[in-house]
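ok, trying the design again with the full structure, not the truncated one.
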């Protein structure tokens, strides 16, 4: 593979995959084509996705007719419609935010050049490999899920047709995963890598060691009784203060540029992340309730596995989406904030006034410009949000079980077994929620 010299070459897999699924950013030699071409491109994929959805859903219902229970078919249809709407919304929003994504690429080019000027490598090769691995792993995972669905709902009279329908029914998941991987690339790989490089550079400026901690260095300073101030170290542990001050100033500037890139990128993907997280929350809650209902059906082992295995795969997939996206956002924010801990260690009397002034300015900048990822400002993307989602899903699941069981109890008022099961289930879930 030839050497990657620009960020546009490094993100070529990202651009190609997004273009393939209808969310491409058009640029020919850094020039934007006429808007009519972009609108026609988006309209083509919008019509294509709607047509595929209308074509595949009736045949999928025929495929499921003799292989699963009515309850599972109903939830499958709801998920299919939700994913079809989400797929169309993602294509439209990608065209709306295309200008913002172009701005992100321009800002990244400028920031990379500034970092290279202070001796930090661009590392485009690792960025390129991350995209290849990410799209490859996610694509393989989705194909395995589709094959699992095909295995449990195989129709011997039309094997090839069943396989095609299984792949088409998981097409929305391919589009959603493309957005997830693209967003995680900018957050988890690019931004986290750049913040890590800056932190490593700041670590290299530390001179305190276990043998010469900061408090010992202060005691070794000579005191000028006439001017009433510390002058220098007895053991000549004096820094090149001018060089360090200039480096600190450059790091401070780059750190702020990275924060601006993160905010611009967050604005570009904010609507898509909000849509995906909302849809994932709805689907996870519905599938958990479906799984609860299936547990109390009188099914043999084969029918039980055929019904529950696809449900468990969908629950795992959408749960993993919420967890991973929020996890990478939290880790990147922590990496950006870690610079504050390092510069506090650098602030010591052995440095010049100019160097300490730069550190104070940097500290103020970190306080005023924290790195926070949001979904269009509705909620922060971090570990606290994962905890909130778990609590919300449990709460809504309790409500669904209560309403559903009360409805069944009204239909079968003489069923004492059902009443005991209802009370036991509600009590257990309420204890879990309070815990």
């Amino acid at each position: 593979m030839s050497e990657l010299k620009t960020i546009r070459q490094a993100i070529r897999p990202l651009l190609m995959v997004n273009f393939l699924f209808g969310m491409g950013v058009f640029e020919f030699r850094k020039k934007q084509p006429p808007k009519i071409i972009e609108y026609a491109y988006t309209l083509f994929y919008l019509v294509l996705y709607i047509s595929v959805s209308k074509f595949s859903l009736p045949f999928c219902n025929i495929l499921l007719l003799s292989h699963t229970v009515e309850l599972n078919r109903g939830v499958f249809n709801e998920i299919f419609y939700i994913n079809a709407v989400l797929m169309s919304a993602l294509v439209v929003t990608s065209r709306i935010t295309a200008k913002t994504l172009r701005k992100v690429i321009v800002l990244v080019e400028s920031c990379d050049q500034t970092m290279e000027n202070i001796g930090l490598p661009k590392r485009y090769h690792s960025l390129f490999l991350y995209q290849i691995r990410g799209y490859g792993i996610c694509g393989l995972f989705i194909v395995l899920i589709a094959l699992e669905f095909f295995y449990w709902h195989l129709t011997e009279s039309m094997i090839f047709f069943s396989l095609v329908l299984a792949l088409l029914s998981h097409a929305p998941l391919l589009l959603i995963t493309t957005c997830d991987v693209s967003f995680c690339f900018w957050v988890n790989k690019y931004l986290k890598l750049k913040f890590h490089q800056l932190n490593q550079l700041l670590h290299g400026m530390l001179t305190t060691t276990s043998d010469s901690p900061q408090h010992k260095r202060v005691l070794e300073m000579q005191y000028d009784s006439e001017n009433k101030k510390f002058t220098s170290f007895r053991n000549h542990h004096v820094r090149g203060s001018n060089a360090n001050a200039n480096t600190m100033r450059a790091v401070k500037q780059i750190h702020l540029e990275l924060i601006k890139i993160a905010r611009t990128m967050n604005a570009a993907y904010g609507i898509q992340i909000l849509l995906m997280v909302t849809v994932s929350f709805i689907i996870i809650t519905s599938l958990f309730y479906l799984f609860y209902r299936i547990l109390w059906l009188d099914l043999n082992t084969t029918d039980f596995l055929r019904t529950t295995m696809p449900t468990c795969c969908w629950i795992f997939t959408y749960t993993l989406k919420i967890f991973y996206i929020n996890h990478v956002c939290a880790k990147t924010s922590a990496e950006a904030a870690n610079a504050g801990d390092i510069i506090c260690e650098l602030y010591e009397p052995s440095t010049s006034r100019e160097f300490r002034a730069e550190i104070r300015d940097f500290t103020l900048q970190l306080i005023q410009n924290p790195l926070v990822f949001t979904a269009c400002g509705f909620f922060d993307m971090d570990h606290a949000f994962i905890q909130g989602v778990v609590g919300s899903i449990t709460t809504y699941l309790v409500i669904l079980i209560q309403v559903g069981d009360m409805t069944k109890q009204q239909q079968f008022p003489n069923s004492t077994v059902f009443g005991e099961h209802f009370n036991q289930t509600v009590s257990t879930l309420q204890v879990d929620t309070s815990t």
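Keeping the full-length input from now on. Strands lie at 221-224, 229-233.
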